[in-house]
Amino acid sequence: MILLNHKKNFLELKIENTTDYWYLSKIISTNDIVKGAFERKIKINDNSVKKKYFGIIKVEKIEYDEKIRINGTIQSEHEEIPKGSYQAISFEINDIIKIEKNNLLKFHLDLIKKSHKVKDKLLVIAFDRDEAYFFEVEDNQNKLLFNLKGNPIKKEYESESSNFYSEIISETKKIESNYKLIIFSSPSFFKEYLIKLLDEKLKQKSFSVGCSTVHEKSILEILKQQELEKILGENDLKNDLEILNKALVEINKDGNVAYGLNDIKNISNTGAINILLVTEKLLEEKREEIEEILDNIEKTNGEIRIINSKNDAGIQLDGLGGIISLLNYKIK
Fold first, then answer.
1. Whole-angstrom distance, CA of residue 324 vs CA of residue 76
2. Where are the beta strands (DSSP E) in the chain?
3. CB 265, CB 289: distance < 8 Å
4. How sure is the predictor about 230, in pLDDT bands with cuts at 50, 70 and 90?
5. I need a surface site. Which of 19, 156, 203, 268 has the fewest CB within 10 A?
6. Does the pLDDT value for residue 161 go beyond 50?
7. Smallest Cα–Cα separation from 2: which of 126, 94, 135?
8. Could you read off the pLDDT of 95-129 as tens digits, one per residue?
9. Which of 16, 204, 208 is nearest to 124 (CA)?
10. pLDDT by residue (tens digit) across 163-179?
């Protein structure tokens, strides 16, 4: 998601991909003002025709799946449409959405940054016994860095001392520090053999994804793989689970932790909260109360993380009431 304009409580955003719908659903709140284009049937000379309008609505409900849909009441003046009548505005990839919020939090701006940061640079290596192609992927753009040619020998993949594998690993080590994650992709089981040869440091940031063929256009197939989407999602999930597990340890030893909406609300303005985890389910159910808590935490420089209720961390956290925080010090 691209931030085109930001003034006080006003945002102008461009939607880049379907992941942005999730972020927008957390940024837009009830009673916000949203501007965008919509179509509506009107009667002209006893005939019903669709006419396109650019209008303003006051938000009552947000829905998202294949697009994001904002439902609310019309605030702008239109000759054929009564002010205050109900209308939905749908937004898709490449659309621009304008939002006026009652209270724009740093948390909302952080979500915009995070939506863009989802595209941290990846190194993708497509290879087989004959050749290897090194691609850089960033912000939905990809480029071929270079390629290597192998000297295939029958059943070379069965030997862990494969010279070509060693060459691929050597070239990877030269540039790996520039990338958050490294994806090794190959037909068959070549990728599994290569990953076995990596040192522990490189293994920590390396994953394998299948591909059917290896050439300079292989990246297009690799980027469509559901395995890759899962890997990128699991990287954030790993961080969330680590924080949640630390909080659970603190609960067991009656340490620096607080959980439950009321308890956290009571301490949210004290500066005690270091990191807050809250599930999207609780955010949707208690949006007004949660945003008040987030506002307080921002003012005391605490960290805020929104957890997907459908993943492992979110399921566990919803079982604890949907909200938990690691504290800077114990509250008596």
1. 41
2. 2-7, 10-14, 33-44, 47-64, 68-74, 86-91, 96-100, 122-127, 131-138, 141-149, 181-186, 206-210, 257-259, 273-279, 303-307, 323-327
3. yes
4. low
5. 203
6. no
7. 94
8. 999 999 988 998 899 889 877 765 567 899 999 98
9. 208
10. 889 999 999 999 998 88
What SS3 class is residue 77? Answer: coil
**pLDDT tens-place string over residues 120-156:** 678 999 999 889 999 988 655 678 999 998 765 544 4
- What is the pTM for the complete model shown? 0.62
Rounded CA-CA distance 6/186 in Å is: 44
Neighbours of 221 (CB within 10 A): 16
AA identity, residue 101:
K
Tell me the C-alpha distance between 88 and 260, whole Å.
35
% of the chain surpassing 90 pLDDT: 51
Domains of the chain: residue spans and CATH? 2-102 (2.30.30.870), 122-224 (3.30.420.60), 235-327 (3.30.1330.30)
Q: At what angle do helices 106-117 and 287-299 cross, to 10 degrees?
A: 90
Q: pLDDT tens digits, residue range 62-91?
A: 987 767 899 999 999 888 888 999 999 999
Q: How far apart are CA 20 and CA 13, in angstroms?
A: 10
List the one residue out of 84, 22, 30 whose CA is nearest residue 59: 30
Q: Residue 213: left (phi > 0), alpha (psi -120 to 50), or beta?
A: beta
What is the CA 204 to chain-centroid distance, rounded? 21
The three state secondary structure string of 272-302 is CEEEEEEEHHHHHHCHHHHHHHHHHHHHCCC
Integer Cα distance of 197 and 169 in angstroms: 8
Residue 322 gets the label, from left (phi > 0), alpha (psi -120 to 50) or beta, of left
CB under 8 Å to 38, separation ≥6 — which residues?
52, 53, 55, 87, 88, 89, 90
